[in-house]
Amino acid sequence: MTQTDAQQKIAAGYATDSPAITLGSVMVDGTADPTARVALPLSMVNRHGLIAGATGTGKTKTIQLLVEQLSGNGVPVVVADIKGDVSGLAAPGQVNPKVTDRAARTGVEWEAQAFPVEFVSLGTGGIGVPVRATITDFGPILLSKVLGLNATQESTLGLIFYWADQQGLELFDLKDLRAVISHLTSDEGKDDLEGIGGVSKATAGVILRALVTLESQGGDTFFGDPALDPADLMRTRDGRGVVTAIELGDQASRPALFSTFLMWILAELFQELPEKGDVDKPELVFVFDEAHLLFNGASKAFGEQVVQTVKLIRSKGVGVYFCSQQPTDIPSEVLSQLGARVQHALRAFTPEDQAALSKTVKTYPKSDVYDIASALTSLGTGEALVTVLSERGAPTPVAWTLMAPPRSLMNTIGEEAVTEQARASELFAKYGETVDPVSAYEKLEQKATAAEQGQVDAEEAARQADQAREESREQARGGAGSAAGGAGGGDGQGGDDDEGFIAKSLSNPAVRSFMRSAASAAGREITRSLFGTRRRRR
Which residues form the signal peptide (predicted)? Predict the structure, then answer.
């Protein structure tokens, strides 16, 4: 079989009359045939895919090529822009000899073009429109992945979420969850903690410390309100899909939060979108860059959720593309769900690399044109081994592909340009300011304040009761003395004379002065008796 025959035979497996994403042209023995097109049918994009390869082999440009053609076909795209490499989608490309040569060898009519891009950042510390998720929406499983909790701690966090929900305590941000855990581990909340069952105070303390660490690293700017509405990711503009480029912002030290956030959006979409079945083109496509961050250290529950979401989200018309250096970075349960494979060059410098290469070779269909193992380590920059699903759902022949050049700028547009576009976005008016509604933190604080005030009121009431009892005793003693004085007056005869004598005596200035002095001395003695400050006898 001649070189041209081999190229045309491979290209025949990619032939389609329906709309498709042009990836490039078939190469055999280092020569590309511009007429032998390698394409991914648009109707198969929601069967998911993998873009893999070592650093510097062209993965980012392949992502750019895929995203801009999806946008051009009216498909919204969410792409993780961890290093800021894909911001060039917002500006037209620049003509140069390399681009012209690549376009000619791949058989594409190249024209510089910009695409509609929304720049968003995780939390308020980035240069894009700030996006957030509430703690409640995120849920215990995804949050456990971000916090790096083990299975036991993850289970405990689930019980804490359940208790907060039963008590009507909304968890919007980190301080809400921290307040709930602080309450449960306090003396006032120990009965509530015991009522949950299966929650140890020590485990709750570990979770609380993890939350404090996350908050100190800027995580508090991501969790909050208003939460991102997934519908804002599914917009079109002038017939083209809007590309939402999500950058890390001040979460650069926690890339796991980034990938987990994308997984949360997928889960939200799965809950909200109706069943679509087979579609002519996807409703939305997700591109997970640095996908290994999603699975490193993941709990069993998290892994199961990812697998289930990827399996089922296809029927909602959503495609998911994972990007990583090694295919082995992706769990086999997920890898088996990916219909498209774009594999850039692999390096085999270490025994671990060689083992990964061997595993990768076994995942490809057999080829009578290429030695897959040799090809994977011989691919040049901007070249890839490709296999996708044809329109009838069958794997296409493996094609050594010269990738077509992107039409947008193959460089960053700079932070200033990104910031300017973000501030002018309609999303900025919706998400630009953080809102702090009444939630668990405020409710528990009000409860604690009310309990403290209740204790103060109870102590004051007890003091007043003691004082009232003491006054009653004094009044009783005074009444008894008056009764005794009345008894000494006999049968009451001569009362008028006595009253006259007393009145005259009291009218005497000397007598009045003496009585005032005696009353003052007696008053001081009574007062000291009541408050316990009576003078000691000598």
Answer: none
